Amino acid sequence: MKLLKAVILMLGLTGMVAGRLSKNGDRMCVYRVLSRGDALFCKGNLHVIYPEIGDVDCMYIPECNNFRRKISIWDKPSIKYSLASENKKYILVMVDPDAPSRNYPKNRYWRHWLIANISGASLKTGNIRGDELTGYQPPNPPPETGFHRYQFILFEQPKKGKQVTLSSKEKAKRGSWSISDFIKHFHLGTSVASSQFLTQNYHDF
Q1: What is the pTM of this model?
Q2: pLDDT tier at 26 (50, 70, 90 boundaries)?
Q3: What's the rounded Cα separation, in Å, for the pair 21 and 98?
Q4: Is the pLDDT of residue 169 over 90?
Q5: Alpha carbons 199 and 204: distance in angstroms, whole number
Q6: In the predicted model, is pLDDT for residue 139 greater than 80?
Q7: SS (H, E, C) the chain
Q8: What is the pLDDT of residue 29?
Q9: pLDDT, tens digit, 9 for 90 and up, residues 56-106
Q10: d(CA 11, CA 52)
Q11: Are 42 and 178 in contact (CB under 8 A)?
Q12: CA neighbours within 13 Å on the CB side: how many for 68?
């Protein structure tokens, strides 16, 4: 009997490590945290907040409550970075490195959202204000392509230098975007914070 109790206790602890209960009180909805490898991308306490589901930092979008369908149609999330300096400007990039799939990412990187000249004050509140260079496109992976990573990367924008913009070629399409060239061209350096979540097409199981 003692051995059985020990096994049950271990299983319960394992379940707590693998995920956390939904904030909306639905005990059937468990959020899974990312694997250690994918979790390394998340740094700097950058919060990506969607309605109903809340902060999706470093987690899988659960299929319960139709969250995977809803996130594919919801408007842009709130982005909060409490360490932002109010007198500085920032650049936010949202990309999918797994287009069309993680095993065959021939269209890496797919640019979902790009905003420049974000005020530090607005980042502190989560209601970011800046110049939208690429309009927000919700995450909606193609069917049967597995889980996709959706990455949010925040840079401090240099006070002096070139005006941040996209070339006419870049504006013409979202896919196969060279984020490394963009970072180098505008001397952005290392990101100050980053976050990602994983989701798959809501028809897939």
Answers
A1: 0.87
A2: low
A3: 28
A4: yes
A5: 10
A6: yes
A7: CHHHHHHHHHHHHHHHHHEEECCCCCCCCEEEECCHHHHCCCECCCEEEECCCEECCCEECCCHHHHHHHCCCCCCCEEECCCCCCCCEEEEEEEECCCCCCCCCCCCCEEEEEEEEEEHHHHHHCCCCCEEEECCCCCCCCCCCCCEEEEEEEEECCCCCCCCCCCHHHHHCCCCCCHHHHHHHCCCCCCCEEEEEEECCCCCC
A8: 85
A9: 999 999 999 999 999 999 999 999 999 999 999 999 999 999 999 999 999
A10: 29
A11: no
A12: 22
Contacts of residue 52, Cβ cutoff 8 Å, sequence gap at least 6? 24, 65, 67, 70
| Paired tokens of 2 | 């003692």
Residue type, 3: L
Tokens of 198: 């994983």
